[in-house]
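Q: Convert this sequence to structure tokens.
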Amino acid sequence: NDNRSSVSIIIMASFTRLVVLLHVSLFSRVVFAGDFLVGAGIYDVTGPCAQVNFMGMAQPKQTGHGIHNRLRSRAFIFMEDVSDRTSENTVCFVSVDTGMGSDIITARVIDRLQELIPEEICTIENTSISGTHTHSGPAGFLQYILYQFTSLGWVEETASAFVEGIAQSIYRAYSNLQPASVYSNSGLLYGSNINRSPTSYLENPQEERDRYADQGDTDKEMLLLKLVADDGKELGMLNWFAVHGTSMNNTNVLISGDNKGYASYLAERYFNGPDVLAGKGDFVAAFASTNLGDVSPNTDGAKCTDTGLPCEPYTSTCHGNNMVCIASGPGKDMFESTEIIGKKQFDFALDLYKDATEKINGSISYRHSFIDMSNQEVTLGNGDTATTCDAALGYSFAAGTTDGPGSSTFQQGTTSGNPFWDWVKDFISEPTEEQIECQAPKPILLNTGDLTHPYLWDPVTVPISVFQIGKLFILNTPCEFTTMAGRRLREAVRNVLVDAGITDAMVTIAGLTNSYVHYVTTFEEYQAQRYEAASTLYGPHTLQAYIQNFERITRDLLRGESSVTNAAPSDLSDKQVSFLPPVILDRTELFQKFGGVRKQPKGQYSPGEEVKVSFNSANPRNNQRIEDTYLTIDRLGPDGKTWTTVFVDGDWNTKYVWELASESGVSYAHITWSIPEDQESGQYRVCHYGTRKLPFEEGEALLSYVVRLFSWNGASYAAASLFQLSSLFSFSSPDVATSSEYKEFMGCSKTFNIKNVDSASTSTSDWWAVSSFKASLWK
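A:
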């Protein structure tokens, strides 16, 4: 019996071993066959479109007055097609139409996902939330003082919209997970970017610059992923191309995704079809940011606005004045320039997409680390060691760039101080001799690393991560790398991969991810102290610190080892302050109604003309209309009764402009529709939707209403605003502050006719025409 038991045990053990080996073999086959689960999702993150300062240009007067096109979050989940659906074999990538990432927004998104998704799929370690770097979106979502001056502090309206929209886009991607293949393609796109600090680029070694002679002083490569489900359904595209979101300049007051947002809009309208409203289709197209630090879309270059001559190249000034040295083009205005640069990216991406046949195979993995950037020891090329510094901004930071000048008091390329501003700087925070030496040759203007009142002015701890999807490696950075800085980082990681036997790796940088810490230049560029160098927070060795840490976590990934990390940044939510006045009430002029039409359209239009209609309206901050619209362009059906919406406020050919006509709460909505050349003949109307805040819901609002009603000068308006703030923060309970009621309203214009002389023909210039779309069914 004992022998029989022993034999039985041996047989069972052998069988078990065989099953395990078979399972491992099958598991390995699945992992390395290139079979993934892929999901794509999109959601509205537009946020407040009125009265909130735009993030990017730091211009106090650049506050929202409406919408040109809505902001979107586009999420992609890549998961190994195995039964164990966890975060261990998953990466979650989000490209969102915001100025940049934010550590507090990322943390809140992860918390929200725990409520939305029953599985732990997207975590703080395997999620990348990368801003497209539009400069035409609402501010107030970074938890550090430096980024809150022009937004009057923290703006919860912005933050809540971003958190919910990003989380919902990830949830939609999760809900759409399905077996799929990932294909890649890349190519060089010319004529869509220039270097805005070319003299700094020339500081890099000639030998190094010669290696990139085919591209020059900006990266021209677009790397694209094509996502196709096993049943043949096209899920989306994701690409990276270096260009700033500054086609819309610092005079723009309409929410816009800028050139990358427009490129995404074109691609999604192309694949989803012209009958699907903006942001509503299944196909998701993300045009993500990468190392765009010194890269401008204004391809006509910087010229003196008073003479038309090129600016002085080292200081970007005209006869000593930086305010008239401005880059523009290629269009006649910022709207046309945005359209041109966005269209170029879309056209090129579409060509890459059609020809994308190289299938990505392999495993999915990641490594993540929080690092204290204020005290990183680095090894230099000669073997010496150095350290990074506490955060500080230089004089040239205040000068701004040729995409958007800052203060006329400062110039780019400044390497020495000024007695007056040195006195002001020392009054705020006097840097130590050690800090001055560490940051040299940067003359310190704002010693932000030493400022902690009322809370931190700049991050100390920042997140970095590397994602692996087969042979693709994505380096997620919280900053804006210049062209050559990005090239050095990619090359360093590629060398680590080659040493590990991976000779065909694709390496890209996802910029402005999960947090924001300004710029990163090369050591040589840092010496010139133009804007990007003055904004390299942690000193001249910042790039080397990032390189060494990315090399470290990449090696950890390849070896299957955990990565050493610091603690996550502190949550400063309970310290945030906000001085943005809330909406008190809305009203109309006497005998007028909300939604009433103030200016009717003409009776008839032709394609190419503009329809302009104005309505009595209310403050759009009352209701952001997320996943909705403030306007519709409707076409009357053949039955003469049914209206069909053909365009909304997320479309490129519409503009929604909100005007506050008086401080007593009267406001108007001005809607413009540029009629496409191929628009179908028929009867149309323009409709406006809004939400008004009812007056007199509490005593404070009544008194404030009376004060504002008679506020014919700035002093009384200031008194009204101060009263409002005091009533909210000092003299009222939370219930009073949130007890106001709101009421929806709408209004429509009279019907007008569009007569297309040849409505059956198709304009070759209007790619989204129905016939053009059907004719392009190469798919």
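The two ends are 69 Å apart (CA to CA).
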